[in-house]
Amino acid sequence: MNSAKPVFFATLLGIITLAGLLLFKGREPDKTAGGELVFHCAAGLRLPVSEIVENYEEEFGITVRPHFAGSGELASQLEVAGGDLYLPADVSYIKSTREKGLVQEAIPATYLTAGLVVAKGNPKNIRTIADLAKKEVRVSLANPSAAIGKFTKKVLAGVGQWDGIEANATVFKFTVNDIAQDVSTGAADAAIVWDAVAGLFENLDFVHLPEFDQRRKTATVGVLQSSHHPTMALKFARYLTSSDRGLLSFAKHGFDVVDGDPWDPYPEIKLFSGSMLRPAIEQQLRLFEEREGVRVLSEYEGCGTLVSMMNAGATPDAYFSCDLQFLDQVQDRFEKGTVVAKNDMVLVVKKGNPKQLTGLKDLLRSDLKVGLAHAQKSALGKLSNDLLTKRGLLKDLESTGNIEILASKGDELANQMQLGALDAAIIYRSNALSSDQILEQCEIIELAKDAYATQPYAVHRKTPHKQLLLRLEQFLTGTEGKAQFLKYGFHWKLAP
Description:
It is a single chain. By secondary structure, this protein is an alpha/beta fold. The protein has 4 domains: 1-30; 37-110 and 218-257, 3-Layer(aba) Sandwich (D-Maltodextrin-Binding Protein, domain 2); 114-213, D-Maltodextrin-Binding Protein, domain 2, CATH 3.40.190; 267-496, 3-Layer(aba) Sandwich (D-Maltodextrin-Binding Protein, domain 2), CATH 3.40.190.
């Protein structure tokens, strides 16, 4: 027996060590994962994107196959060609393809400003849009299927110059690179191109035009609904738009980049959430983790407790508050909140309502065990106190001795009701609908229309994961996320 013990423990140690190595490997960049991503990209972004693709393939062993063409041409092919990622030169293409159900997540990468490109030294002194309509000026224009062509036509038509300049165009090309090349080779005197594209040609000058300067565009990468590798595609999209990886290549080639997240193969983000939101968001958070390849550390508590934690030094990346007034208390640390939903407060009583309670006034009757939330620890407690004070009932209720428990959050009161420890409690509707077991033991009595809380979502001003947190907001409030809120009795407040 004794001789067997070393063998047993050696085997056990080997298993534990192997498990530890596998776990560690799961947190490291996987250079042997294999696979391929199909990437549709605007031609004007070819230079930085080709460099980013090469760097990514070398670091992670994932093949990224870029296809460069005009943004509109690419958009028209997405339904047929499928693929994993789409990066047009103008976010309007992301919006239109999203409306068609072709694009899911989207991350901004770089800004683009259109303007004139002319030969070095501007020998023909072309300075304004009106100069392009002069007979002696040869103009190369992009086809409206390209982002620059569509944008050029829209701006020129808006200032009444499109017809004259179109008539003066010697050629229409399919990409912004082609029309810049025309000016570079002397085939045209001027073209309207993106500023960063102009910077690729040493023999050309870029002339800013006020009509275009005030309408800067954003090149945004989208993950396609057709992707068979959405987590892989999102990882590459995060790399492409990261401040210390992909955006360095864009900046190196003269692009004006966005404020991107720093690169992290496996980001962790911390979410503070009022406990009443848990039934509506918990499932979506797990799906978000799986799709994005990230980890969300969720802290569910009464909002008064969460605010106290933040005042003591805790710094969540985002805060989903039970009510606006609890975001207001820490608003200086967060971006402006997005109001997502409204949640009613209700009175819950034992099944069959044996005490025949019909409203808040009945809570003053003798021989009752009433549960309230703590006014300092939770939004529910603060709002309950405000409601009872408004009805002139709070002091009388406190004097009856009926208040059996002051809980730190609503789900604790729901559990006490389910156990039969209370006759009545004021909770959120979502607390009451959070499980079938609660409704088997209790029933709901509606309160006044002004008995509700409003839930805002806000991103911390100093989070390094701002873009990721904005995508989390979109994921929680998308079609499936909204359905979860409605399932648990929330009223939708988010504007379309």
